[in-house]
Amino acid sequence: MGADRAGWYSYDRLENGGRKSSDTVIESLQTIAVGNLFSALPGATDAFILTAFEPGEFMALGVRGRDATGAAVGTEAWRKEFDRANWTFTLSAIADGTRLHVRARPGFLVLRIPVFGLVSVSGWVARLIAPPVHFVMQRRQLNGLRRRAESARP
C-alpha cells in the first residue's frame, strides 16, 4: 500500500496522483520493515510510517506528531512519537477465509489550505472532521481490496 508503492486501492486520482492502484501482487514490495514509509500522497515523506507489524497478522501505520524527538526506530520512545494519527490493519481467520479489521484514529490534523498555508486543527476538532472523510475513503479501499482478493482465488 502507499501512493509511491502499489497505491491505496481507493480514489486513485485523489490519493495516488492519478496512477491506478495495482491489481496484482508486486513481489518487490512484499518485504517491509518497521520504519518503512507508506506515502499518503505521491512524494510525501511524513505519512504513513510502519510502526509495527507481524506478517500475516497485523500492521500499524502512524503519522509523527509535532514533538518528534528522533528516537531510534522501533523503540518505545519512537512509537510514542506517532500521536498525530494511527491506522491499524488486522487479519483474523474465519471459517471460509480471512477477515480484515481496520481501525483509524486521528490525533490532530495539519492541513495545507490555499491562502492560509499550513493550518493545525486540534485533536477534538480533528476527531469530528476526519471520521466521515476517512469512512468514505476507507470504504472504497476495503471494497477495492476485497475485489482484488476475491479475483485472485483459484
From TrEMBL:
It comes from Flavimaribacter sediminis. This is Uncharacterized protein. It comes from the Bacteria. Keywords: Membrane, Transmembrane, Transmembrane helix. The chain crosses the membrane at residues 109-130.
